[in-house]
């Protein structure tokens, strides 16, 4: 028999709706019948629809008798042999019936269904209390490994711990940098500690929100301060010590984003039907927008007029200059070799790349591979002269003063970042109204100056080493640079940084 088009889907749940015949509508005072079926698979929804159709068809035939519509409904629904479906239909009827439910409650008590079916009813708004309703939990908890979310493919009954193990094994094969990989491991480990080792497809939006609320209490530097990697223990110790928690940006851009990536991958592997963390990262914005804002022109002039630049220029001076004139990340600059300076279109460029033979180098993402032209200001300051003098000393790297860390998994920026931050904070203070004083804000300043100078948005993405998600960004150059882009780089206007632009050539 062909099923009428009476079921529809919202999010991951199926619903039933049937218009009441006009003659019956006058009697029952209902225009239609709407039920939440509490199932996510179309096959199960169609099966329930058949039972509901049968019940309503027989109810409509006897509506004109002395019995009330509610009495008729309970009488015929009792004929259903499947107890689980029977409870489901009655429960849905209770929470959608516009008339009084008093009669139904009496019948439910007589039939021994009251405790299982009548749990909570709000006569004012008739909304379903999803958190306290026992019946819904009973239905959703039944053999979840066999829930038919997709008629053609059942979900895999995969535990979170096993899924994390497989996921991290795959992530480690991507050669991600040590810092990023560490955050991925920590985020999934914390999620497991908070939720317990349940099935992946059992994690819903309530669980995701619980994780977010817990992560917000995570202490800064928990392992180094409290010597524990258990998040619940660390939070308790942190609250007792009244120390600060991690920043919203770290929560959203770090932990929650990585959890979202994990569930996206689990969805691809058919271990779950949806990603409960999909939209949560973007909602964690409290305080994040004021973090790592660009430096002001006054701050930049204060940096480059500092007494540090009256000394002989070395790694610290050039790292600050390159931070504003290239927008490159700390590690990208520290790992530069002399061979990474190449000529393109008659001008020297930094070629930020990690070759297969260069095990001591790393890139944050594949999009980080790029050419960055020498701005004319960098040439005027004499950076090439500095490079040539260093090259004569026989070192491989330009900034060889920063020794490679003993831990091979760490990159060059792990130790140097602390040094350059101390220098910046001596110049500008520990923080300003926009947030902490850190080296990475020079990169944000470079991006802001590109924007203010009218650099094409697609070229901005290229010079930043970011991917352009817009459709136009999927076409054109990806890792090479055109002559037009090279020449346009000089259009970035640094003239307001007078302490730098009016400085004589460094000898």
Summary, kept brief:
This protein is mainly alpha-helical.
CATH architecture classification of the largest domain: Orthogonal Bundle
Strand order of the largest sheet: 1-2-3
Overall number of domains = 3
User: How large is the radius of gyration?
Assistant: 32 Å
Which outline best applies? elongated
> On the 0-100 scale, what is the average pLDDT?
77
Tell me how many strands there are.
Answer: 8
Low-confidence blocks of residues: 97-101, 114-153, 286-290
Reported by name, the CATH topology of the largest domain is: hpI Integrase, Chain A
Beta-strand content: 5-15%
What is the CATH superfamily of the largest domain?
Answer: Intergrase catalytic core
Distance between the termini: 90 Å
CATH class of the largest domain: Mainly Alpha
Oligomeric form of this entry?
single chain
Kindly describe this structure.
The chain has three domains: 7-142, no CATH class; 160-290, no CATH class; 297-501, hpI Integrase, Chain A (Orthogonal Bundle), CATH 1.10.443. The N and C termini lie far apart (90 Å). α9 (178-195) crosses α10 (205-215) and α16 (315-326) runs parallel beside α21. It has helices at 22-28, 42-62, 69-77, 83-94, 102-110, 114-117, 134-141, 160-172, 178-195, 205-215, 222-226, 231-241, 248-268, 280-283, 297-304, 315-326, 330-334, 376-381, 383-391, 413-428, 441-452, 457-464, 483-488, 498-501; strands at 7-10, 13-19, 32-36, 341-344, 347-352, 370-373, 431-432, 435-436. The chain is elongated and about 100 Å long. It has 507 residues and is mostly helical. The chain has a three-stranded antiparallel β-sheet. Strands 4-5-6 form a three-stranded antiparallel β-sheet, with no helix packed on it. The protein has 24 helices and eight strands. 47% of the residues lie in helices and 7% in strands.
